[in-house]
Amino acid sequence: MDASPASSASCVHLSVRDHIAFVAVDNPPVNALSAAVRRGLMDAITQADANPDVHAVLVHGRGKAFIAGADIREFGLPPQAPSLPEVCLRIEACSKPVVASIHGPALGGGLEVALSAHWRVATPSAKLGLPEVQLGLLPGAGGTQRTPRLIGAQAALDLMLSGRHVGAQEALRMGLIDRVAAQEDALAEGEAFVRHLLAERLPVRRSGEQTAALADRAATQASIDAARAEATKKRGLFSPLKIVDCVQAALDLPLSEGLATERALFEQCLASPQRAGLVHAFFAEREVAKVPEARLGQARPVASVGVVGGGTMGAGIAVAVLDAGLPVVMVERDEAAVALGRSRVEKVCDGHVAKGRLTPEGKAAVMARFTGATDYAAFKDVDLVIEAVFEDMAVKHAVFAELERHCKPGAVLATNTSYLDIDAIAQATSRPQDVIGLHFFSPAHIMKLLEIVVPAKVSADVVATAFALAAKLKKVPVRAGVCDGFIGNRILAVYRTAADHLMEDGASPYEIDAMVRAFGFPMGPYEMSDLAGGDIGWATRKRRAATRDPKAPPARYVHIADRLCERGWFGQKTGRGWYLYEAGSRSGKPDPEVEAIVAEERAKAGVTPRRFTPEEMQRRYVAAMVNEGAKVVEEGIALRPLDVDVTLVHGYGFPRWRGGPMKHADMVGLAHILADIQAFAQEDPLFWQPSALLVKLVAEGRTFDSLNKI
Ligand code: 3H9
Fold first, then answer.
1. Structure confidence at residue 710 (pLDDT)
2. How many domains does the chain have?
3. Same domain for 342 and 260
4. Residue 2: predicted pLDDT
5. Residue 628 annotated among the catalytic residues of the structure
6. Whose CA is closest to 16, among 63, 61, 65, 50?
7. Active site residue 74
8. Which ligand 1 atom sits nearest the alpha carbon of residue 85?
9. Are 436 and 453 spatial neighbours (Cβ–Cβ below 8 Å)?
10. Roughly what angle, to the nearest 10 degrees, separates helices 273-287 and 641-652?
11. In a shared domain, residues 456 and 520
């Protein structure tokens, strides 16, 4: 037989021993259901069914997974036979009992294969789930029909709409599996289960023929209606409602017709741009960790971490590290500040306890890993220190001088600065090879993004250490070069400026926020500013004004935000900002006084206000984001366009289902984006200078994605 890696024979192995056909899926790293695996499964089951010596079939996975699902890389390519639904039907139709023995992930199509087997056993650490919704899809190989028939509509909808993974015990309670194995050897446990089945003469039992779980029609319909109402709230998402439609079909139609409905709706999801965006996001989130330094350097061991500063940021970073099981030493300037830092850490833990995410004993264990100190000498044994003190170069230099004095040789010295020049911080020490930027996002224990900022002199193993730490903290790391704002804040500054220009030209801040939400962000730039505090941006603007090059042509400057700050309107914390907040409320109302200030500033600037449609506003906002993203790639601040995508999705609320700004631009068409920029440049050539990279890609008929594959 063909022995090439893509051949079905090398991906699925069939052997027969003592009347049991063993079907082993062997397609590293995660046994994804490529065309070769599907062919292999089809052939193996057909052969086993036809072999009179075989009394039962055991399907299992080799390596670290049972089967992690359909091969995501095949989506969007021409389909190859057999399809996964056909394979699942073939397994279910087998005349001999088929057992799936699950270890590791059994996800999506992988779980659907298991559900089309007649019996299921899972090892204690197995993870089962139907996460297709996270890829803009629905379970398309019978999952929407067999799962409700086995475990009822409510539990099935919960699995399919959340995409969450369940452990073996929970899967047993739900009725998704028949037995939890005593230990992790899926092959031995599966074989024991098959022997038990044969000894007990247990019959073939097809999931598609089960009726009990859907017998209470009224209760099932109520679950479907509730799920539909919930899915409707997920603004902009396509596949959740299709999942609900499929479950309705499971209730109303015979299996074959339900499967046909599922197939038709799966095809619609597959063709949707959301699927393309989400699949891009899935791979991009994995690619970001592939940086040159990770290949060149070996991560240094990190068994303990120091944090300088117990403010909101320092405490959040401490919690993120403590949650990962590492001990933390926090240094503050005096006992009172240490106590405050500790109480901030404790408050987050209390929140976890209140939400049931942490037990009181768990909290005690976390706090036992925390030490507060006022002397930098407490850092003498730590492997890595993160400073999170006031954003002022002189203060940073003073902190790094202390770190140099007290930290052991080889300790990684990290700064959480969000815009200061890390090369300058590193240069002021005698160990620039150990200095790196770890830019967390607030709240640091929740936000997934971690910008790893790589100064000129840092050694590769320190960069590798930062990526290893990010993995430990379950963060999404993105490598960034040194510049004002790195990747994320630099791009934010530009699209926020585009929003300010729009406002001065005639749009209200409320219209702009509504447009940004309609695009898919959780909030607009002015709501965001009210949440974060307008004073932060004001301080940055004042700093920039002081260093502005007097020789350069003056950039357009919109004064409206400054007028608000001068009145002390910093947002939620002061009860008013762009919006008005009633005491204790986080949702603001439009403020006519703000609108009056906007009108006044327009008049001062000599602007005759004009109307913008939401589409016109969106084109400017997105073009500004994409143009700056392209400049960030062009200058090597981001390694690839996908690094920009992941930064904006995980740090700034860009809708994941659009893939990120660069993927979105590819889907809109780079020529359209460039044409918009050139048209806007007629009014303001300084702000709308097209990125040379964007111009080049358009001239060559290429996409940003073509730069991701290097
Ligand atoms: C589906 O099944 C549709 C069906 O209902 C209907 C069909 C008709 N395909 O995450 P890791 C790669 S939709 C291709 O770093 P971990 C991944 O890119 C699918 N490749 O490891 C990476 O490659 P590289 C439903 C895949 O241990 C490598 O494997 N299933 C797939 O942290 C290791 O991955 C899902 O959505 C795949 N399905 O986590 C499950 N999965 O080394 C998606 C992984 O080149 N997968 N790769 O960077 C996962 O959630 C995690 O990968 C898993 C392992 C938990 C399995």
1. 66
2. 3
3. no
4. 34
5. no
6. 50
7. no
8. 8
9. yes
10. 100
11. no
- Distance of alpha carbon 370 from alpha carbon 310, whole angstroms: 12
Same domain, 33 and 157: yes
Q: Taking CB atoms and a 6 Å cutoff, what residues make up the pocket around ligand 1?
A: 29-30, 32, 65, 68-73, 84, 105, 107-109, 112, 131-132, 135, 137, 139-141, 143, 283, 286
Task: Tell me whether residue 383 is in a domain.
Answer: yes
**Size (the chain), residues:** 710
Report whether the peptide linkage leading into residue 590 is cis, meaning its omega lies within 30 degrees of zero.
Answer: no
- Name the active-site residue from 92, 132, 451, 511: 132
Contacts of 308 (CB under 8 A, 6+ apart): 314, 330, 331, 385, 386, 387, 388, 389, 399, 403
Here the tokens at position 602 are 């327009």
Do residue 201 and residue 151 come from a single domain?
A: yes
Ligand 1 midpoint to CA 121 (Å): 22
Q: Does residue 165 share a domain with residue 40?
A: yes
Which residues face 373 on adjacent strands?
A: 331
Residue 3 is predicted with a pLDDT of 33
Low-confidence ranges of the chain (pLDDT < 70): 1-8, 548-551, 710
The HSE-up count of residue 520 (CA atoms within 13 Å, CB side) is: 17
Is-contact 355 284, C-beta < 8 A?
no
CA of 487 to the centre of ligand 1 (A): 27
Assess whether 345 and 435 both reside in one domain.
yes
User: Is 688:622 a contact under the CB 8 Å cutoff?
Assistant: no
453, 480, 507 — which closes off a domain?
Answer: 480
Distance CA 101, CA 197 (A): 13
Domain annotation covers residue 262:
yes
pLDDT in tens, 130-142: 999 999 999 999 9
Q: Of all atoms in ligand 1, which is nearest to the CA of residue 127?
A: 55
User: Strand order in 98-102's β-sheet?
Assistant: 12-17, 20-25, 56-61, 98-102, 119-122, 179-180
Is 69 inside a domain boundary? yes
The tokens for 518 are 């309609």
Of residues 92, 112, 391, 451, which has the active-site annotation? 112
- The rounded distance, in Å, linking the Cα atoms of 663 and 660 is 5
Q: What Cα–Cα distance (Å) separates residue 337 from each residue in 309, 331, 397, 656? A: 8, 9, 20, 39
Q: Compute the half-sphere exposure of residue 277: CA atoms within 13 Å on the CB side of its CA.
A: 26
Of 559, 554, 555, 658, the residue nearest 605 (C-alpha): 559
**CA gap 412, 302 in Å, rounded:** 9
Ligand 1 atom at minimal distance to the Cα of residue 163: 36
H helix intervals, 570-613: 592-604
pLDDT score at 549: 67
The model's pLDDT over 630-657, given as tens digits with 9 standing for 90+, comes to 999 999 999 999 999 999 999 999 999 9
Asked if residue 287 is part of any domain, the answer here is no
Distance (Å) from CA 28 to ligand 1 centroid: 11
Please state the atom number of ligand 1 nearest to the C-alpha of residue 107.
30
Structural domain including 248 reads 12-271
Statement to judge: residues 180 and 33 lie in one domain: yes
Q: Which helix (H) or strand (E) holds 65?
A: none
